[in-house]
# Entry
Amino acid sequence: MKAIIMYWSATGNTEKVVNTIQRSLAEEKVTSRVIKILEAGDVDLYEYDLVLLGSPSYQFLPPEPVLNFIKKQMKRHNERGDIKPCAPKLPGKWAVVFCTYSGPHTGINEAIPVGKYLGQFCEHLGFEIRGEWYIVGEFHGRSDLSTTGRLGNIIGRPNESDLAQVETNIHELIKSIRSIEQI
Ligand SMILES: Cc1cc2nc3c(=O)[nH]c(=O)nc-3n(C[C@H](O)[C@H](O)[C@H](O)COP(=O)(O)O)c2cc1C
# Structure
């Protein structure tokens, strides 16, 4: 299985999740390529069987560089005729999207649009979404929003327990893909 992890991270929370994903995939004997979205250039996601795409939430959407990347990719895949009516699922093409967020005002509702947006991109390409993960992350530089927001004290997150959950998710993901592919 060829896997790629693509992400954007300004203050390191999403990157922490990426490192855990990469390590957990390696434990499953899945080698992954890790690319920052700003360095992704014209990466062709169809070269991979498993795409993991991650971003923080900025004003309840992906940040501008992530949006620009997706727009550029959509344009290219549209021009190539890859995006078809009904978005048929391509066999053996899987995706996971993940979002780190601080949820200071309305909690996870600030992250869900990000997960849905990233997921729509993958689904339009024909990848089947096998996971939509939301991970709490400290709002670096805003101690008020990291202590008095809807999620309470989130300093130091994602913490060990958040990352342990990501690790479990990866093991379950790989197990489920392998069991489908053996059918
Ligand atoms: C400019 C800016 C806007 C943000 N907007 C939101 C938001 O609307 N909702 C939210 O839950 N978190 C918001 N956050 C917090 C980040 O999503 C969160 O801390 C995330 O984990 C940061 O990821 P990173 O460390 O990988 O950059 C914002 C952070 C910044 C810097």
User: Anything to note?
Assistant: The longest strand covers residues 128-136. The CA atoms of residues 28 and 147 lie 36 Å apart.
